[in-house]
Amino acid sequence: MADDIDALLRKKALELAKHRLMESAQPQKRELTEAEAVEIVKRITKGDRASEIIENALALYRPHVIPLFKKLAELHTQGVIKELADHELYQILARAGFRVPVKTEVKIVRHGREYKIGES
């Protein structure tokens, strides 16, 4: 009976030591702030329209896109994402359900004159 109790105590002690070792081996992850996440996304996104897409998304859907930006920043710090093109960020936002308007102009050049669509 005493051997059974000793074996159980040893087993529990080994499990506890293993659990503590696993906790100490994993570095504590610090939660990114909103500003840090947005800054990282701005830094890794390349292209002419990147800042416009990010600013419009923040202006329209700030509380909802911040978790998405935090996840993108976390993936970048883990090394999964190195760089994003502006159209890739636009597609990610669109697939997540965020319609981000981007200013576009369509110009037609005919006989040396430039016409903009919507112009009379």
Short summary:
The chain has helices at 2-25, 34-44, 50-78, 86-95, and strands at residues 45-46, 84-85, 107-110, 113-116. By secondary structure, it is mainly alpha-helical. The protein has a domain at 34-116.
Fraction of residues in H or I helices: 55-70%
Number of strand segments: 4
- Globally, the shape reads rod-shaped
Strand content: 5-15%
Instruction: Order the strands across the largest sheet as they lie in space.
Output: 1-2
The total count of helices amounts to 4
Mean pLDDT: 88
List the uncertain runs. none
* C-alpha-based Rg, rounded: 26 Å
Distance between the termini: 98 Å
- N-to-C series of helices and strands: HHEHEHEE
Main beta sheet? 2 strands, parallel
Structural class: mainly alpha
Organism: Pyrobaculum neutrophilum (strain DSM 2338 / JCM 9278 / NBRC 100436 / V24Sta)
Protein name: DNA-binding protein
Descriptive overview:
The structure is a single chain. The protein is mainly α and 120 residues long. The protein has a domain at 34-116. It has four helices and four strands, in the order ααβαβαββ. The chain has helices spanning 2-25, 34-44, 50-78, 86-95, and strands spanning 45-46, 84-85, 107-110, 113-116. The strands form two sheets. The protein has a two-stranded parallel sheet. A two-stranded antiparallel ribbon has the order 3-4. Helix 2 (34-44) crosses helix 3 (50-78) and helix 3 crosses helix 4.
